[in-house]
Amino acid sequence: LVTLTVRGELLCPLSFASTRDQSAVIPKPGRSEVQAGKGIAMFSRTLLAAAACVAFLSDDAAAFSLAPTARLSPSSFATSIAQAPRSRVAPSLAAPLRMVAAEPSTSTNHLRPTSQPYSIIDKLPEDYSWIVPDDDLKVQERIAKYVKDGDLIETDQTILISWLDNFREALDNAPDKDAKKFVVEDYFSVLTELIRKERKRPHYFLDESVTGTHYEPFNSHHEDSKFFDYQQFGCDVTRPLIDWENSEVVGAANLEKIKAQLEAGDNVVFCSNHQSESDTHCMFTLMEDQLGKEYGEIAKNTVFIAGERVLRDAIVVPFSRGCSLLTVYSKKHIDSEPELKAAKMGHNGKTMKQLGAFFAKGGTCMWFAPSGGRDRRSEETGKVEVAPFDPNSIEMIRQVADKAGALGKTHFYAMALATHNIFPPPSTIGGALVEERVVNYVPLRMAVSQEIPPVPVDESLEGAELKKAVKESRVKRAEIVFQMMKDDYERIKGYEQ
């Protein structure tokens, strides 16, 4: 696992956390840790690129919160996955489509295993247990001790204890007997140690050095740390909360096409709504458990664009470290500290430069939310409404691919997620860096569209008329992508959450 950072700068200008030991391009197993500061040149028009980045995320800079990444270990779930096809049409997909993610012929997930392909963890694996001190303290007692010693802050204690109680309650109410076997206290003991370590030694930046690794060469209270699988840890924590039987992935035929495009060296971009702090791990588990391990690998190697705050919230970081991330500052957070504005814009420019390198190499799967934030439950309708897509955000990604000479081999798809209730966001946007965590036992649903059609521009136009037509095409493209996502969101019962 790799984090790309630039040594010695206050703002980790580029953070790329990969799911494998990789180079600075796209993850391939077996390569060593890389620092992004070496060999990264800015765009020839850096300011233009950075300005485009500013519009990339909306005011919800905490728009994106992730969970752990790394290879899934056989010790954490059943290694054999039943691949027998099973036809299962979601009741909400009966209506005819307009311009949608999945036509009726592709709405059935023919890749779905015939039985639940994993087992809930009922004993903390040795891969994790080594990190917990052998002090015979309950997790609540240990958290209180760390606060007293100054290793954690009081907010950490409030959030962790509330989260622990809520997690236990969610599983107690789950009809799935296996979910009740999950060793909640043991996993929260591990999470406590990861947060403690983050408080004492931030993983991606220190004044004297950049740590930024996704394994533990040493630990704050262990002399000989072992490799820690952040992605698997996050998947283990997410899976018990998922009602597997009633979860659904729509558009399996489109995902088969996507798989073939990636294998051919083309790039794929998912333009998605964003609902939950754990959307990354929802994707990891949905694609692996509902489609099979090959599709799980696609999810785990996907590069996610995120707000940089996911690297600064100590409670989120253990999960962020399990994802492939490129981070950007939103307009709100660029302007919040005027003295750091230039550095933050430089960060955004370098992020887009790195994304361009990924596109140029090919075989990159990328996810981003053109709305710039998580969907909220409307006070007026009581439903979880999807936020509109920003045309500038979509255009920015297209321009990055174009500058990399890869626009012709970069394919765009709409993705709809109905994941709100597993980890609901706060009702308000912005606010404190740390937020209360609430979880629920729920089904998850995801739909992937057909490839987004091109929006042609009349090449015979010139001057002002051409500029106007280009601008209109960007708006129209965003409207088309949003409508495709919205139609599928309705089909996967997003408004019924």
Would you summarize the structure shown here?
This protein has 497 residues and is an alpha/beta fold.
How do the strands and helices of this protein lay out in sequence?
Elements: H1 46-54, H2 126-129, H3 139-149, H4 154-172, H5 184-200, H6 230-238, E1 248-250, H7 252-263, E2 267-272, H8 279-291, H9 293-300, E3 303-307, H10 317-320, E4 324-328, H11 331-335, H12 341-361, E5 365-368, H13 391-403, E6 410-418, E7 445-451, H14 463-491
Parallel strand pairs: 1-7, 2-5, 2-6, 3-4, 3-5
Antiparallel strand pairs: 6-7
Helix pairs in contact: 1-12, 3-4, 3-5, 4-5, 6-8, 8-9, 12-13, 13-14
Explain what you see.
- By secondary structure, this protein is an alpha/beta fold.
- 35% of the residues lie in helices and 8% in strands.
- It has 14 helices and seven strands.
- The chain has a seven-stranded mixed sheet with strand order 1-7-6-2-5-3-4, with helices on both faces.
- The chain is globular and about 75 Å long.
- The N terminus is likely disordered.
Structural category is: alpha/beta
The amount of beta strand, in percent, is: 5-15%
Biggest sheet: strands side by side, in what order?
1-7-6-2-5-3-4
* Strand element count: 7
Count every helix, treating DSSP H or I runs of 4 or more residues as helices.
Answer: 14
Shape: globular
Average pLDDT reading: 77
> How would a crystallographer describe the biggest sheet?
7 strands, mixed
How far is it from the N-terminal to the C-terminal residue, by CA? 35 Å
Ranges with pLDDT <50 over ≥5 residues? 1-106, 205-225
Topology as H/E string?
Answer: HHHHHHEHEHHEHEHHEHEEH
What fraction, in percent, of the residue positions are helical?
25-40%
Radius of gyration: 22 Å
